[in-house]
Write a structure and sequence with these properties.
This protein has 84 residues and is mainly α. It contains 3 helices and 2 strands, in the order H-H-H-E-E.
Length: 84
């Protein structure tokens, strides 16, 4: 291998190898970071059966009258609304 003049000195070789090592670390960090960013899309692509929506019964559109939405405290009837 033919070294350039600035690479023949110790700091030139040190700079080359540290740069290669740092580049490898940044490549690994970038790849693992992109996996974390696209985790949901990757999971859906690898496990499509887990993301299928099952057919459900007809929803009750008026949930305000559900008995679990009403509580009694000290003789007062309190309705709880969950925002749906």
């Amino acid at each position: 291998m033919q070294w350039a003049y600035h690479q023949k000195r110790w700091f030139g070789k040190w700079h080359l190898y540290v740069g290669i090592f740092a580049g490898l670390i940044l490549t690994i960090v970038g790849l693992t970071g992109s996996i974390l960013v696209f985790q949901d899309e990757i999971d859906q692509a690898l496990n499509p059966e887990l993301f299928e929506v099952a057919k459900t019964q007809k929803k009750n559109s008026d949930r305000r009258d559900h008995p679990h939405n009403t509580i009694q405290i000290s003789g007062y009837q309190i309705r709880i609304y969950y925002g749906y």
